[in-house]
């Protein structure tokens, strides 16, 4: 158990958030355990966002504003914000949510209680653009795809879906996660690599309001898509280009883990680290096999796909019969 005397950083990204950013900043700065620094990277806002941040910052020395000279996009902007933090524990923050007053205190207590925890996530209550409750939480919608105790490396690579706004992580992760991989959603990238170096802990209680509206930077299959949306997504990712992207995704993580190992970090020899590294290699090989099948006619493709199906590869490295059908039927 640690003493809990951590330096706390918040890495926040903003872009044209004049309507909502003030409420989010106030909820962060007025925590029962205030952060030691709030690094805000603004991605070329053209509204009053900068003006609002500067006004709030006049009375809050913990706030540090960084204005990007050119638009970076969400992934690279968060990468920039994380790289400029100096704390022991780093919280990610959107520009349009609202934190509960004790979020930082509860999360830092979880780190103090478990020195092996490299990442701590919480639940969140969903609200709409006008702050009206939507009647459910992230955990309530995630079911098997969310963080829970006893997960193995395969869950982090195949099934995990985690929102960056609810996660925090130790700064020891920075050399491994930065720069963020281009083929990964950055919050899933952080979660998987946090698993490689230690324990990922889930606090099964809401610690913030998570806002869903038309301006969210990405669609969320658990929150936004009905059956038809999921069918369209399956069709999109069943193309040859989709398989090639997934191949690169596993290769990028494998190479990052190998580089970390070559640099001699002690944690690179742990069982979970080695399991994640080896699984990335096997996932990549399976996606290459699926890509080869896609170049065949449907008859040969069905015969070729039967072998990995019978070996259990579709269940271990994809989504079972559903993925088998996608490979055989979708052009």
Write the layout of secondary structure elements.
Layout: E1 8-14, H1 21-29, E2 37-42, H2 49-57, E3 63-67, H3 74-83, E4 89-93, E5 98-99, H4 103-113, E6 117-127, E7 133-137, H5 138-142, H6 153-158, E8 167-170, H7 174-177, H8 186-197, E9 199-211, H9 227-237, H10 240-262, H11 271-294, H12 298-311, H13 313-317, H14 321-329
Parallel strand pairs: 1-2, 1-4, 2-3, 6-9
Antiparallel strand pairs: 4-8, 5-9, 6-7, 6-8
Compressed to H and E, one letter per element, the order equals EHEHEHEEHEEHHEHHEHHHHHH
**Mean pLDDT, nearest integer?**
88
What is the level 1 CATH name of the largest domain?
A: Alpha Beta
**Cα separation of the termini:** 55 Å
How many β strands by DSSP? 9
Strand content: 15-25%
State the CATH architecture of the largest domain: Alpha-Beta Complex
Q: How would you describe what is shown here?
A:
This protein is of the alpha/beta class and 331 residues long. Helices cover 46% and strands 18% of the residues. The chain has 2 domains: 204 residues, Spore Coat Polysaccharide Biosynthesis Protein SpsA, Chain A, CATH 3.90.550; 103 residues, no CATH class. Strands 1, 2, 3, 4, 5, 6, 7, 8 and 9 form a 9-stranded mixed beta sheet that branches. Strand 2, helix 2 and strand 3 form a beta-alpha-beta unit. The model has no long low-confidence stretch (mean pLDDT 88).
């Amino acid at each position: 158990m640690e003493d809990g005397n951590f330096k706390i950083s918040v890495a926040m990204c903003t872009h044209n958030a004049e309507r909502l950013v003030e409420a989010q900043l106030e909820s962060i700065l007025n925590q029962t355990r205030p952060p030691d620094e709030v690094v805000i990277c603004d991605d070329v806002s053209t509204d009053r966002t900068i003006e609002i941040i500067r006004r709030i910052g006049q009375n809050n020395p913990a706030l540090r504003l960084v204005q990007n000279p050119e638009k970076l996009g969400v992934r690279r902007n968060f990468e920039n914000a994380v790289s400029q933090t100096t704390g022991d524990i780093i919280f990610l923050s959107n520009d349009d949510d609202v934190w509960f007053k004790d979020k930082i205190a509860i999360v830092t207590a979880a780190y103090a209680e478990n020195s092996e925890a490299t990442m701590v996530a919480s639940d969140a209550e969903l609200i709409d653009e006008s702050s009206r409750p939507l009647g459910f939480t992230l955990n309530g919608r995630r079911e098997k795809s969310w963080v829970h105790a006893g997960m193995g490396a395969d869950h982090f690579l195949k099934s995990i879906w985690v929102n960056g706004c609810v996660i925090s992580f130790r700064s020891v992760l920075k050399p491994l996660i930065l720069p963020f991989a281009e083929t990964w959603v950055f919050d899933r990238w952080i979660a998987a690599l946090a698993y490689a170096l230690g324990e990922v802990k889930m606090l099964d209680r809401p610690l913030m309001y998570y806002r869903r509206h038309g301006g969210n930077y990405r669609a969320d299959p658990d929150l936004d898509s009905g059956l038809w949306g999921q069918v369209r997504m399956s069709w999109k990712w069943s193309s040859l280009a989709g398989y090639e992207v997934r191949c690169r995704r596993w290769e990028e993580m494998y190479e990052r883990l190998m580089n970390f190992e070559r640099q001699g970090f002690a944690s690179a020899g742990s069982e979970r680290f080695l399991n994640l590294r080896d699984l990335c290699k096997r996932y990549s090989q399976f996606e290459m096999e699926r890509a080869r099948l896609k170049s065949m006619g449907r008859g040969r493709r069905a015969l070729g796909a039967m072998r990995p199906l019978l070996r259990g590869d579709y269940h271990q490295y994809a989504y079972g019969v559903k993925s088998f059908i996608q490979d055989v039927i979708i052009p």
